[in-house]
Amino acid sequence: MAQDRRPSGAPPRRMPLSPAARRAAAARRRKRIRRNRILFGLAVLAVVLVVVLGIRALFSLTADKPDGSSAPDSSFSGSEPAGSEPAATPESAATTSVDFTDARMILVNNNMALPDGYTVETQVADEATGKELQTEAAQSFAAMQAAAELEGVSLILQSGYRSVEYQQGLFDQQVEKMIKTGLNEEEAKEQAKTVVAVPGYSEHNTGYAADILTESYRIMDSGFADTDAYAWLVKHAAEYGFIARYPEDKSAITGIIFEPWHWRYVGAENAAAIQASGLCLEEFWATYGASAQATPAPESGSASSDAGSASSAA
């Protein structure tokens, strides 16, 4: 027998593997590599999934915060119809930069009278009609009228500022008209309220309300909503500080029928905030202005129109 000549302590000599053994070993290596790759891929996928879910959760929390990142979920409080959503929480009042002590934000409706001793400076806003608005509102209307004209759209100030005394005359005339139909004085006054606003409760007494028509449509009714002038106002009026005061879908809150001709000056910065909120003026006051006034949020009015029918003078 041949003697083992390896040095003492040397590892045993490996026997050469057979071809079949080498193939089996290679197969095991390939299987191990595939398994490691699968485990690595699953680990990467798990990490990505955790990151994605975390980001989505973060965006969801941010969207729910009443910090201006999303529109507040608010509704008019005080006399809203049954089934409406509850009023916004006090925290939401801090999400608007609108100053509710701004005279341009005054709220007057069928249940909210003009403040005692209210005075306003006015000037002619439309040279063609001679109608007046509060000085700043008049200047803004004139600028808006000129801008619309450059685009081939005519805007006419059909009615603007009315003194309480003038409003009283209109109301008394309507009462007399109702009495002639056979109503007694009390009944006539109640009926007159559905056509002409009670003196001191009309937005026109503030100097900030503007009834706007166009040369091709001089009737104050819902047909004005089909004119190019109305479409132009919807798109551009807020840029000049005017908002649609009585939207079609807010009648239950404003207490006034849809009046596409009736626009209200609040200032460009306030108009932008109100328009972005999607709220009417009553809702905006109730949602954000509660902490800015000492008295409770005003109630919505009755279902009478401040401007009345096409033949009335509100």
Blueprint (SSEs and pairs):
Elements: H1 19-63, E1 122-124, E2 132-134, H2 135-150, E3 156-159, H3 164-179, H4 185-192, E4 209-213, H5 228-236, E5 242-244, H6 251-254, E6 262-265, H7 268-277, H8 281-288
Antiparallel strand pairs: 1-2, 3-4, 4-6, 5-6
Helix pairs in contact: 3-4
Could you please describe the fold and organization of this structure?
- By secondary structure, the protein is of the alpha+beta class.
- Helix content is 37%, strand content 7%.
- The strands form 2 sheets. Strands 3-4-6-5 form a 4-stranded antiparallel sheet. The chain has a two-stranded antiparallel ribbon with strand order 1-2.
- A hairpin with a 7-residue loop joins strand 1 (122-124) and strand 2.
- The chain is elongated.
- The protein starts with 18 loop residues before the first helix and ends in a 26-residue tail after the last helix.
Features:
four-stranded antiparallel β-sheet, single chain, 8 helices, elongated, two-stranded antiparallel ribbon, about 325 residues, disordered C terminus, alpha+beta
Strand order of the largest sheet: 3-4-6-5
How large is the radius of gyration?
A: 36 Å
Q: What is the CA–CA distance across the termini? A: 131 Å
How would you classify the quaternary structure? single chain
Report mean pLDDT, rounded to a whole number. Answer: 79
Strand residue percentage: 5-15%
Major sheet characteristics: 4 strands, antiparallel
User: Residue ranges: pLDDT <50 for 5 or more in a row?
Assistant: 62-94, 294-313
User: Which structural class do the helices and strands define?
Assistant: alpha+beta
Sketch the topology as an H/E string, one letter per element. Answer: HEEHEHHEHEHEHH
Using the alpha-carbon principal axes, give the shape.
elongated
Helicity, as a percent range: 25-40%
Number of helices: 8
How many strand elements? 6
